[in-house]
Amino acid sequence: MWVVFKKEIRSFLGSFIAYIVMGVFLIITGIFMWIIQENNVLDLGIASLQVMFNIAPYILIFLVSAITMRSLSEERRLGTIEILTTRPVSDTSILLGKYFAAVGLIVFTLLPTLFYYYTIHQLADPLQGIDNGATWGSYLGLILLAASYASIGLFASSLTDNQIVSLIISMVLCFFWFGVLSLLGDVKALDVIGKSLEWFSLDFHYQSISRGVLDTRDIVYFLGFIATFLGGTKLVFESRKW
Amino acid sequence: MSIQVNQLSKRYGNQWAVNDLSFEIPTGEIVGFLGPNGAGKSTTMKILTGYIPATSGDAVVCGFNLNTDSLSVRKRVGYLPEHNPLYLDMYVAEYLQFSAGMAGVSKVKSAVENAIELTQLSPERNKKIGQLSKGYRQRVGLAQALIHDPEVLILDEPTSGLDPNQVVEMRNVIKNLGKNKTVLLSTHIMQEVEAMCSRVILLNHGKIVADNTLDGLKKTSPNDSLETIFRNLTSHVGSI
Predict the structure, then answer these.
(1) A63, HSE (Cβ side, Cα atoms, 13 Å)
(2) What is the rounded radius of gyration, in angstroms, for the C-alpha atoms of chain A?
(3) Residue A128 confidence class, pLDDT cut points 50, 70, 90
(4) Residue A43: beta bridge partners?
(5) Under 8 Å CB-to-CB from A82, ≥6 apart: which residues?
(6) Of A101, A76, A102, A242, which Cα lies nearest the Cα of A170?
(7) Residues in contact with B49: Cβ distance below 8 Å, sequence separation at least 6, in sequence order
(8) Strand, helix or coil for residue B115
(9) Which residue of B has its CA nearest to A93?
(10) What is the secondary structure of A131-200 as a DSSP string?
(11) Neighbour order of strands in the sheet with B15-25
């Protein structure tokens, strides 16, 4: 598994997409946090990273999909999948190696945002300060959310040998599970059904964790979500054997 | 016996790509898999390397049954797939290190050196695979196949697309490897078999139409060239 993990990280950092994707993420969150009028941290005067945590899920849809789009589709396009799968390594370890590489890269991309935390920490009123519970809760939520996106992305990339198709499928699925499902909860006509559908959305559990209260149900939801999509990926990956 | 195949069949949809194939290859033999396109050569090789399972029948490689112990087979088999797929943005040495890791080799460094030496890749070792000529790429493909010093090598059209000089070099490399390994290679060129193999298995429409030594095959119709024998055995479209 770690052989695949290492190769994925190396090949991603060796490609140009890596730096574009990471740069775009930091620039956009930076603009929203500090520059856009009236809505930025300085104008709001609230010592929190909430601005970033509100916008990040949407940027991550693009970011994570771009990271995972070639993961399996490229192996299929090149035909290297045939070499990979005839090595004495199980399909599961190949997929997990690729998955954890994607998650690792996402965490790596999020690291520079700790600088925002430090800045606000320094700027904040020393008596009140920044809400640490909410901040670290939100970070955990963001990582779990991104890890869920990564499982969607890997799944999308197993479906096709075309990177762009994989990117689009992944973005649509991520947006559906994060945004569309949670909006259904607001639709009055759907009533209880809408509310229960909302429970299945990533946003619902992301918000819940972001409050800084760790609820086992949210963690179980995210882990179950990831396991489901990785299971789906494995199913598609092994369909060559049918 | 390195490879034992018993009534092996593979069906795609309602078409039989491989139909009731049985043969044995003893250790240390270089065998040529011959046949027109679509005869089932690649499919058989994909089954023998554990890439896809057979629809029915058994294949035993190095004493392990592919249906039940594919992992043990994969440890002992080196495979060069058709069209030689490679990561073009990786460096030669880097790719071989990765291959060694995937193959579960414990001494990665010496395995890489060994493979580079066997395939005479050392002048190109620090280049990106994408920068290499076709001949060298083919050697990289061969190098990754033998990185773990496998007992059996399965090479799907190892010389296709090479220029005449490269073909001769490639043949020499494979012949050298055949001294202490079992090699099963596929081709549709008769001379290839003549130059490298001690035995030929001729496939057509997923069935064996000849399994013989080269001399034995020539004796079946002494007046014809090998090419003509090949044509005669494979040209008439067998109705299934």
Answers:
(1) 32
(2) 19
(3) confident
(4) none
(5) B46, B51, B79, B81, B85
(6) A102
(7) A86, B73, B74, B77, B79, B154
(8) helix
(9) B102
(10) -HHHHHHHHHHHHHHHHHHHHHHHHHHHH-S-HHHHHHHHHHHHHIIIIIHHHHTT-GGGHHHHHHHHHT
(11) B15-25, B3-12, B56-61, B64-65
Nearest residue to B126 (alpha-carbon basis) of B100, B93, B89: B93
Is the backbone of residue A235 left (phi > 0), alpha (psi -120 to 50) or beta?
alpha
Q: Choose the mutation target among A9, A86, A98 for the interface with B, i.e. most B CBs under 10 Å.
A: A86
CA nearest B101 in A: which residue?
A: A3
Question: Between chains, do A88 and B79 touch, taking CB under 8 Å as contact?
Answer: no
Round to whole Å and give the CA distance between A79 and B155.
15
User: Which has more pLDDT, B195 or B59?
Assistant: B59
Contact A4 B74 (CB under 8 A): no
pLDDT above 70: residue B238: no
3-state secondary structure of B8: strand
Nearest CB partner across the interface for A86, out of B49, B88, B98 = B49
Assign domain B3-39+47-188+200-235 to its CATH architecture. 3-Layer(aba) Sandwich (3.40)
Structure tokens at B107: 């001494």
Flag if B83 and A7 touch (Cβ within 8 Å): no
ipTM attached to this prediction: 0.88
Q: Write out B57-78 in H/E/C secondary structure.
A: EEEEECCEECCCCHHHHHHHEE
Cβ distance A154 to A71 under 8 Å?
Answer: yes
